[in-house]
Amino acid sequence: MDTGLRDRTILVTGASGGIGAATVRLLVQEGARVIASGRDAGILTELAAETGCVTRPFDLTVEEEVEQAMSGLDLYGVVNCGGWGGEIATPMDTDTDVFDKVIDINTRGTLLVTKYASQGMVAAGTGGSIVNVSSQASLVGLKGHISYASSKGAVDAMTRVSALELGPHNIRVNAVNPTVVMTPMSECYWGREDIGGPFLNTMPLRRWATEEDCAGPIVFLLSDAAAMISGVCLPVDGGFTAV
Ligand SMILES: NC(=O)c1ccc[n+]([C@@H]2O[C@H](COP(=O)([O-])OP(=O)(O)OC[C@H]3O[C@@H](n4cnc5c(N)ncnc54)[C@H](OP(=O)(O)O)[C@@H]3O)[C@@H](O)[C@H]2O)c1
């Protein structure tokens, strides 16, 4: 299958993290020109040495930085992958400072990148594709996820509205909603036998996702193979939200 991504320029935020880096690797394999972003310039430099991507570090919470980073880019695609898990808390005991920070990074950060990237994409008039990395936490109620789920639910809504607004410019906007990838951040909660065990028992595929399990659907949605798909929030969850 020809993804049509050869020589197209794709920005990946969160590229200094697990899912973002896996996406960069797969996009480079497909011949795309990849711009990898995050805050940790050292990790991005290592990824660039490994893959040949270029780097553009910026902070998703600082609008001026995002605007400056997007200026002059000739983008075909964007992967909004940068994000933060926040805390495990209930609506009764949540720390609203954490809530604000999760929304700032996951939701407002996705909006800022979409805002400034799509301005250039619309002006170029050559179409494009945006993929937002949401979560299964936006699709079903998960205990302890009040802030994170709220932030990703808003990303799903943003995906649909952006698909509506950008569609006439031949820019598709979709989301992927992965289940748990067992990163160090996930380990402290989902790695608990009393939490992870019952969860996996209700999931048809009965295993955690890998970074590569997420990168494949992201690249598919960016590609010409998904040319008629827009406004979709695609679970990458081993069937968890289907049963
Ligand atoms: N891991 C999971 O179980 C899971 C499941 C579903 C969805 N997701 C989503 O998938 C995405 C990637 O997750 P991951 O597991 O790969 O996480 P990760 O390894 O912790 O990576 C997070 C990425 O987000 C970046 N980031 C965080 N705050 C930022 C900020 N203020 N400005 C710029 N970049 C920032 C980090 O960059 P720096 O470290 O350089 O700051 C890093 O590149 C996130 O949106 C996450 O919510 C993850």
Cα end-to-end separation:
31 Å
Number of strands: 7
Radius of gyration: 17 Å
List the domain count as a whole number.
1
Output the structural class: alpha/beta
The ordered H/E elements are: EHEHEHEHEHEHHHE
| CATH architectural type | 3-Layer(aba) Sandwich
Let me know the CATH homologous superfamily.
NAD(P)-binding Rossmann-like Domain
Q: Can you walk me through this structure?
A:
- This protein has 243 residues and is α/β, with parallel strands linked by helices.
- The chain is 45% helix and 13% strand.
- It has a single domain, classed as NAD(P)-binding Rossmann-like Domain (Rossmann fold), CATH 3.40.50.720.
- The protein has eight helices and seven strands; from the N terminus they run E-H-E-H-E-H-E-H-E-H-E-H-H-H-E.
- Helix 5 (146-166) links the parallel strand 5 and strand 6.
- The longest helix is centred in the middle third of the chain and has 29 residues, at 96-124.
- It binds NADP nicotinamide-adenine-dinucleotide phosphate.
Brief sketch in words of this structure:
With 243 residues, the protein is of the alpha/beta class. The protein has a single domain, classed as NAD(P)-binding Rossmann-like Domain (Rossmann fold).
Highlighted features:
single chain; 243 residues; alpha/beta; Rossmann fold; seven-stranded parallel beta sheet; 8 helices; 7 strands; 13% strand; binds NADP nicotinamide-adenine-dinucleotide phosphate
